[in-house]
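May I ask for a sample protein chain and its fold as tokens?
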Amino acid sequence: MSSNDDGFVDSIFSHRKRMETISEIIEGEIYLSSLLAATQATESLDKKGITHVISILKEPFHRHSNVEYLVIGEDDSSDTDLLKHFQTMNAFIGTFLSEAASVSLHGNVCFPFYCLSMIFLPRLLQYNRFQLSNLGDISAFRHYDDAWRGSRRHLIDALADEAKSKGGAVLLHCQSGVSRSATATIAYLMYSRGMGATKAYDFVKLRRSSINPNLSFVRQLQEYDEMLRSEGIIQCSSSSASSSNGAQETTSFLVHYLRVTIPVFTQNIPDDQLIVTAKRCDYNYIQVLASLRQQANPPTAS
């Protein structure tokens, strides 16, 4: 067998292994996988304590009887709008965490509602910000706003720890665990941990290197980043504090993604030109790749 054949066989086995792997994103709390891994024998999910699953698929699939499912029937295409499902998926995970924690933390039926109000109703703060600014008492709001953010993150961590102790976890999957479910996982980290899109993407990619959201999903994550910054859930870094709503930092996510996924053709192209190219190609990865290749290697005059 030639070395080329060996390489081909290795790539097949490597792909198969990736498809069968359930990647741990947050220890004992959030997992990411392909459909193949998600529909393995129940024992595989039991070993990781997975009790809840978010499936982002249109096609029917085998479901385990002892697992609670949320099914988002969407394809992996440039026309798919996952952004409209982010809050539903985030709430599904948040509800699970609060219910798991409430069993032993308080035993109070009202406790899950308290958890959800702390984690999943940030727009209430946006209303408070408007009211207080009208009254001119911004200092009072700032104190409350900072306290809310600290309490919110502390509560999320406490819920996650308690859910782990109760033996529960959430698995997100699509067909390959590369685009749709990776996007949903990144969106959850942005919302629950206050991470910017770039930081959340890097966090997930470090733990599952094969992730590769399509460019339309990258654009939607960027838009979600801007939304969360306007609500105060993601804090602007000092480097981008001078720009409105952290625009400088959020637009860099698209640039960051392109430089990570297409390093050869993007290394000598300015950030602004990358953004223009993506928009001109309507965020179609193949068209963007072809355009960047042409820009990186312009035809020489004969």
Notes: The mean pLDDT is 76. DSSP finds 14 helices and five strands in the chain. The beta strands are 23-26, 30-33, 50-56, 68-72, 169-173. The longest helix spans residues 138-165.
